[in-house]
Amino acid sequence: MKPLPLPVRLAAGLAVTAxxxxxxxxxxxxxxxxxxVSEALQLSMRVQQRVTELAIxxxxxxxxxxxxxxxxxxxxxxxxxxxxSDGPAPRAEDPWEAEExxxxxEPPSALPEYDELTLPQLRAKLRTLSADDxxxxxxxxxxxxxxxxxxxxxxxxxxxLDTPVSPDTQ
Length: 170
Fold this sequence. Notes:
Blueprint: H1 6-63, H2 95-104, H3 119-125, H4 131-143, H5 148-162
Helix pairs in contact: 4-5
Region (Disordered): 62-116
Domain DUF8129: 119-161
InterPro entries: DUF8129, LipDrop-assoc
């Protein structure tokens, strides 16, 4: 059997392909909106990336033409806020000076481990200390770390010891 001429074979192949594609068309149509939306989003993101790249290049080019502000006018810092005019503004303590004082300090003799104690540990030992011991610890705390929680607790305990107990309240 003699093969059919090439144009006939091509036409038959083209017809079969058209039928196959026509059968796939309903499935492709169902996915078409998703494909179109996906490609549109990709294009949109590429455009946004390109715009951002151009803006960055423009910023770099213009940065040399105008001086940058050391401190933007919209930025505010705690130091910039005006202090109340009641009196002189309190001077902030230099942390290096505080550390040097703490290192050079002798531990209080009433409680040599005082500087290492936590607030709960100190609270547990307060009842065993005399008024003189408490004064020594309070002076030590005020001249060194000056932690409000510690000074407050020591001062309250000292005030309780200094207050005479009346026979009615016993």
